[in-house]
Amino acid sequence: MSEPAKTIRTTYREAMRQAIRDAILRDPRVFLMGEDVGRYGGCYAVSKGLLEEFGPERIRDTPLSESAFVGAGIGAAMGGMRPIVEIMTVNFSLLALDQIVNNAATILHMSGGQFNIPLVIRMTTGAGRQLAAQHSHSLEGWYAHIPGIKVLAPATLEDARGMLWTALEDPDPVLIFEHGTLYNMEGEIAADAGPVEIDRCAVRRSGTDLSLITYGGTLFKTLEAAAELSKSGINAEVLDLRTLRPLDTESILASVARTHRAIIVDEGWRSGSISAEVSARIMEGAFYNLDAPVQRVCSAEVPMPYAKHLEEAALPQVPTIVAAAQRMVGERG
Amino acid sequence: MSSQPKMVRPTIEREHAMHLLREMIRIRRFEEKCAELYSAAKIRGFLHLYIGEEAVAVGAMQALEADDAIVATYREHGHALVRGISAESIMAEMYGKQQGCSRGRGGSMHLFHAGMRFYGGNAIVGGGLPLAVGLALADKMQGRARVTACFFGEGAVAEGEFHECMNLAALWKLPVLFCCENNLYAMGTALGRSESETDLCLKASSYEVTAWPVDGMDVVACENAARRAALAVRSGDGPCFLEFRTYRFRAHSMFDPQLYRDKAEVEQWKKRDPISNFEDTLRTAELLDDQSLKTIEEAVEVEVAKSVEFAEASTWEPVEDLCKFVYSEEKQQ
User: Fold this and answer.
1) Considering the domain boundaries, does residue A2 fall inside one?
2) Range of the structural domain that residue A71 is part of
3) CA pseudo-torsion sign B297, B303, B305, B311
4) How many domains does chain A have?
């Protein structure tokens, strides 16, 4: 058989940067625009060095005008380009909500299928860095409410490296949510890692006793919780949703059919959330497979506080996931 | 100086004059029929009539080439007709039929046509401006000498998107022709009641956008201004802003009792009716007689009647197709 694949050591940030480089090199229609993506090198340094490599036409610094540059991305996409628009954080994306929800998500439909919008919007999401209530929220589930857009949440290095190209090949608008705590994550990745599919969940750890369903920044907390649980003989499966819209319901139900128990771990608030949606789909599609009611571990329903101890208390943590799982499995007869 | 009356232009060719007149009459009669059909409940939803403002769309559209783009508002029947979208497909759209120019998915406020590069009626005030900026960006990045004409009302200047887009279009020297149709009322709010500075050209020029006002009741003035502006825009001088000073003779929509303006004011503006005034001018210049006007009116009557017949005979999209055009059916290139 073939030689073992070569691997390289990289970070989530670097994987994302290579994905952008790769896209710009592959396709002359691709360009990156957003606040401070050029001279500053990106708020989270994802685009560092790209201005020097590709110049100001393809690495475009924009004014602080989220609505204008997101809308310009939509227009440019309709005009034959393949823009990657970077918004610094999900909280700032609310200033462009009109363009995302009223235009990007609707124009294909309103035009009776005449104008598709091949646009990718990337933004940082999530808490854990003491950035308080205007830089820390997880609103990706909110975007997943909207028909007409696709919502991705790459958690692994492979997905950070591979989702962007697939998103750019998609004919419709795709939003990519990058959890802020993941950028420094380091690990091994295949040297030739490339595009990945964006239609399916991934089982990140196989198990038989319960399904821990999560995505994005909480994936690694959940994997840590699963490792902890294994010490007490609980064999948890960890399912990474990867794509929040459209949801891969089939894989979710298949996991629940194997384990008969499910806990959804989500950094978003629980009310009206993606965790609520996943829970509802399990009820609709796998109710008779369940040995226990679906549970959720979500963020406390407060705007994210600044103080470290309060922020930690507001977020899903390994011990809370472990405790919820032990309660659920302990209830088995 | 010459003592010639202002409007008599010996240089205007009779054929072109007839064309301008015919186009304005087409809009007027088409919309009168729409109002009638609205009362007969054949057309539903919101219906915003352009009657009184015809000179703007007709004049401005003369400056555009086949591969230029148009972004319009929810008051866009006139623009669509003059651009060349058939009266039949517009009327069918108003009826909600699948032969409509947006397959019945858009209605009166969302007329689209890919072949005509007509990027829709946008029903969020100001929402079309970022799209126009993006379309122009795509042209500029791809080295095409095209113009994107963006129509919007004076109400849009109160929106943040207006200011963001003036700045971005000027900053990047993008080929956008901003066509502000100042009909003095944003729905029912008079300009002076909503703006601290009512000089719209001053606002645009403060962003280094070349701007000047135009008599929006004079089709020749509209055409001349648009030609001059489009020439500058096309040659790479950056965006232009034209303030077309016009007036809406009818209510904002079919639900508007017009409590916010005096009947006397409306009557005063009707004396400046762009159609009858242009007719008078042409008669004075001996370019129009009763017979030629009759010929135009009769041809338009036939066109409008045919559009209604077409819409009546058109079919409803099968309900099974409801969820089409949310996402593209085919992968793109």
Assistant:
1) no
2) 7-190
3) negative
4) 2
Is residue B57 within 8 A of residue B27, CB to CB? The reply is: yes
Active site residue A135: yes
A116·B332 Cβ contact <8 A = yes
- The Cα B193–Cα B180 span in angstroms is 18
Whether B2 shows a pLDDT value over 50: the answer reads: no
Please check whether residue A71 touches B, CB under 8 A: yes
Under DSSP, is residue B210 helix (H, G, I), strand (E, B) or coil?
strand
Choose, out of A32, A60, A92, A106, the residue to mutate when testing the contact with B (most B CBs < 10 Å): A106
Instruction: Give the model confidence (pLDDT) of A213-263 as tens digits.
Output: 999 999 999 999 999 999 999 999 999 999 999 999 999 999 999 999 999
Q: Is A65 within 8 Å of B127 when comparing Cβ atoms?
A: no
| Residue type at A57 in one-letter notation | E
Residue A136: left (phi > 0), alpha (psi -120 to 50), or beta? alpha
Classify residue B317: in a domain, yes or no. no
* Domain C-terminal end among A169, A190, A211: A190
Provide the shortest C-alpha distance from residue A58 to chain B (in Å).
Answer: 9
Amino acid (one-letter) located at B314: S
Q: Are A173 and A209 in the same domain?
A: no
Q: For residues B66 and B14, what is the distance between their CA atoms, to the nearest angstrom?
A: 23
Computed over its alpha carbons, how large is the radius of gyration of chain A? 20
Residue B253 has pLDDT above 90, yes or no: no
Whether the predicted pLDDT of B247 surpasses 70: yes
Q: Does B72 reach chain A within 8 Å, measured CB to CB?
A: no
Residues A48 and A174 occupy one common structural domain? yes
pLDDT score, position A152: 98
In a domain, A119, yes or no: yes
In this structure, is residue B326 part of a structural domain?
no
Residues 135-164 of A with CB under 8 A from B: 147-148, 150
Q: Measured between CA atoms, how close is B327 to chain A, in angstroms? A: 6
CB contact under 8 A, A75 and B113: no
Q: Per the CB < 8 Å rule, is B103 touching A102?
A: no
Contact state of B168 with A112 under an 8 Å Cβ cutoff: no
Q: Looking at the domain assignment, is residue A196 inside a domain?
A: no
Are A112 and B132 in contact (CB < 8 Å)? no
- What CATH number does residue B99 fall under? 3.40.50.970
User: pLDDT of chain A along its 333 residues, tens only?
Assistant: 566 679 999 999 999 999 999 999 999 999 999 999 999 999 999 999 999 999 999 999 999 999 999 999 999 999 999 999 999 999 999 999 999 999 999 999 999 999 999 999 999 999 999 999 999 999 999 999 999 999 999 999 999 999 999 999 999 999 999 999 999 999 999 999 999 999 999 999 999 999 999 999 999 999 999 999 999 999 999 999 999 999 999 999 999 999 999 999 999 999 999 999 999 999 999 999 999 999 999 999 999 999 999 999 999 999 999 999 999 998 654
How many alpha carbons fall within 13 Å on the CB side of residue B47? 23
Distance from CA of A167 to the nearest CA of B (A): 11
pLDDT tens-digit map of A269-291: 999 999 999 999 999 999 999 99
Whether residues A29 and A177 fall in one domain? yes
Residue B274: domain span: 14-311
Assign residue A299 the CATH number of its domain.
3.40.50.920
A145 is catalytic: no
Best residue of B137, B140, B316 to probe chain A, by most A CBs closer than 10 Å:
B137
Question: In this predicted complex, what is the ipTM?
Answer: 0.95
Is residue A325 domain-resident? yes
Rounded-to-integer distance, Cα B270 and Cα A169, Å: 53
Contact A96, B153 (CB under 8 A): no
DSSP labels, A15-33: HHHHHHHHHHHH-TTEEEE
Q: Which residues of A touch B330 (CB under 8 A)?
A: 171
DSSP β-bridge partners for residue B125: none
| Min Cα–Cα distance to chain A from B109, Å | 10
Phi, psi for residue A99 in degrees, rounded to 5: -70, -40
